[in-house]
Each structure stands twice: as C-alpha cells, then as structure tokens.
Amino acid sequence: MSTGTRVLVLNAGSSSVKYQLIEMLDGSRLAAGLVERIGEPNGRLVHTPRGGPRRETLQTFPDHGAALKSVAEELAADGVGLDSPELAAIGHRVVHGGLRFTAPTLVDDEVLAEIRRLVPVAPLHNPANITGIEVARALRPDLPQIAVFDTAFHATMPEYAARYAIDRAVADEHRVRRYGFHGTSHQYVSRATAALLGRDPAELNVIVLHLGNGASASAVAGGVCVDTSMGLTPLEGLVMGTRSGDVDPGVVFHLHRVGGLTIDQIDDLLNRRSGLLGLCGDNDMREIMRRSEEGDAAARLAFDTYVHRLRKYIGGYYAVLGRVDAIAFTAGVGENAAPVRAAATAGLDQLGISVDPELNAVRSGEARVISPEYSRVTVAVVPTDEELEIAQQAFALVHAAG
Ligand SMILES: Nc1ncnc2c1ncn2[C@@H]1O[C@H](COP(=O)(O)OP(=O)(O)O)[C@@H](O)[C@H]1O
Ligand SMILES: CC(=O)OP(=O)(O)O
Ligand SMILES: [Mg+2]
C-alpha cells in the first residue's frame, strides 16, 4: 500500500476540469485550479498553489487530455507533481453510478466499462469523468484511481421516492428510476450544517439546496437522503443554467410529433438550451440579477421561474420530512446570490422559515446562519466542498484496502 498522504481530486465536467491536491493529514490544499472552455479556442487554466499567487494560462486546450497534461505541468512546477511518492490516490468525481456503485470504488477496466455503460443516462457528465480517469491512469498507472459517485448518497431513498409511477416491468428492465445527483455535495453540506448548528447529524432534518450550474434539492433525515429532485438523469427537478428541470413528458411527444424535432434535438434543447439560458439568453445568475435590476423583463421572468420552482421543492420536502430543522443553501448561486435566497424563502414565516435581510446580505466564504433567532427553521449558507469530501472518501478506501 502507498504510504502517501496526499490525494489529487479531479472533477471533470463537459468543458471544464476542476482539481485540488489535498494533504490528508490536515485537510490543507497544496494546490487548486480550474481549466475551462476545453475544446474552445479561448481556453483558460487558473492554478493556485498554496500560499502563492494564482497563475493564469490562456491557450486552447483541444481536449481533456491536453487540459490534464497542463495541470500536471503546473503541479510539477510547484514541486508537487504527479510523480510525487506522497500521492496516495487520485479521486474522481463520477456523476452516474447506476444501481451498482453506491460507495467509493477502486477503478479497474471492468468498473470503467460499467461507468461507460451509464453514459446514456449522464451524457453531459460521464464521458468527461471517464476521460479524466483514463488520462490520470495513463499518467500514474501504479496509483489507485478511485471513483466517488454523485448518485451514491441518494441510494438510501425509499423505493416510493425512487420509483416513477410507470409500468414496473418496463422500468425494471431498463433500470429506469430516480437516482439523484450532487450526492457528494448533499452529504457534505448536510453534515456541515449539523456542525454549524452544533447538532448531531443523526438527529437533524435538513433541506439542502445545491444551486450551481446544475441544481438539485434534497431532503435529508437524520443524515440519510430520503428524497432528491434529480432523477434518472440530471435533468429533472429545479430550473438550472441550461437545463429545463421538470417538464411534462408530454412536451417531448408534442415537440417530436407536432414540432417535428428529432429526439436528439429535443435532448439538446432540454439539456443545453433551456433553463435560465432558454428563458432569457443568459445562464449566469449574476448577469440575470443585473439585467433584472435594470428592468429587463426576460431576465426577471427567468429569475421568477427559477425561484418559483425552488419554492415548490422547499414546500414539498417540508412535507416529506414533516419536521425541518434547517435549510442550507450551497454552490455558486446558493452561496452567493442573496436575492435568490431571499425570494425563495419570502413569506414562509407561517412555516417557521424566516430570513434576516442583514444576515442574508453578508458576503463570506464561511458557513453562516441567515435566519433570525426566532426562526423555528434555521436557514443557512453552507459552502460545499465536493473535492474535500471526495478526497476523504478516496483516502479512506485506500486505507481500508491496505
Ligand atoms: N456572486 C455570484 N452571484 C450570483 N451567482 C453567482 C455568483 N458567483 C457564481 N454564481 C453562479 O454560480 C453558478 C456556478 O455555480 P458552481 O457551483 O460553481 O457550478 P458548477 O460547480 O456546477 O460548475 C453560475 O451560474 C453563476 O451564475
Ligand atoms: C450532476 C450535475 O448536474 O452536475 P453539475 O452541476 O456539475 O453539472
Ligand atoms: Mg459544482
């Protein structure tokens, strides 16, 4: 077994790779960075070494392989290269683990083949995750490559929450059910919320709202996921940057039969050209808030539609849980967009949900409570840290195996 104490975490997205090199002895970041716009002419790599100034590289990264090679060079330049004996494992975010992968898993050829088999149900994500694993494996074939799945935390959902009400035999044959995603974040944030409140996660009921590019809500009862908004694929649920979230499946039939769109065109429409982008031409919440403050009607509608869907899930999960102790906002929008938090919780005092405008306006990278003392439900902003969670799970597996 490796005696290393560091884990490199790769979170490969469709056009980006986020990475962190973490020292597991104290959880500190030795380096962190992001490669974005992979495959486009104006690619960008931002690398931040521990303690040092961040370095930016503007160049074209034709594919994920090229991006990861540049990441390896940046790490080597800091003296913490991929060849370091202190590296214990490489942890990979893998979005869809299907029915089989409900725990962190050491990747071999057979596991990789199963992750590839799941590409049709995570077309935006699993292909990039696979590339990340393949490139990392080529660079360090001797190191354990460990996959940590977005779906894993949701495997505890009761069957009545996971099932769609469609013919059971058909559903079972094709493994059609709700899997849920962003599980690593929901798990981390629900625990961090308990820590913020000084409570035992086992006795806390939390609604977690992960609002990033993809967005999902979950109901977590005593540390266990009991429902989540994403489904067979990361398309169901909340309004997202470019994804529609919930639509009547009849919309698909109609667009095909009457609108003449092919299934692939509808897939592209709902996954890449809908959500905030489809409603107003922008998928960045900052831009949408700026435009709507200037009175732009399309941006205002996009904001209102986004918030309305969010409120429906908050109400729904309130009923699912029966008793809610905390609501936690996380990810890019949840952590930064105070107007979204305010609008999503406005007028819910009857449910014991209140937000203090001054606390809500505070900008900080720390977990913090934004509800007043009298609010029965604690509303909080709890920054997610999927990379740390992935590193911890990967490191624990390496040690358990050793
Ligand atoms: N200061 C901010 N105010 C409002 N929204 C923000 C802010 N910073 C980031 N965001 C939003 O966060 C989103 C990205 O969230 P993030 O969690 O980083 O996404 P992902 O990890 O899914 O790529 C973007 O759509 C952006 O609009
Ligand atoms: C599953 C998912 O939607 O992930 P992301 O938010 O990274 O797109
Ligand atoms: Mg994210």
TrEMBL record:
Marked site: Transition state stabilizer: H182, R243
Cofactor binding mode and count: Mg(2+). Can also accept Mn(2+).
Active site: D150 (proton donor/acceptor)
GO terms of molecular function: kinase activity
EC numbers on record: 2.7.2.1
Subcellular location: Cytoplasm
Binding site for ATP: K18, H210, L211, G212, N213, G214, D284, M285, R286, G332, V333, G334, E335, N336
Record flagged with keyword ATP-binding: yes
The keyword ATP-binding is assigned to this record: yes
Matching HAMAP family: Acetate_kinase (MF_00020)
Subunit structure: Homodimer.
NCBIfam families: ackA
Function according to Swiss-Prot or TrEMBL: Catalyzes the formation of acetyl phosphate from acetate and ATP. Can also catalyze the reverse reaction.
Protein family membership: Belongs to the acetokinase family.
Protein name, per record: Acetate kinase
Source organism of the structure: Kitasatospora kazusensis
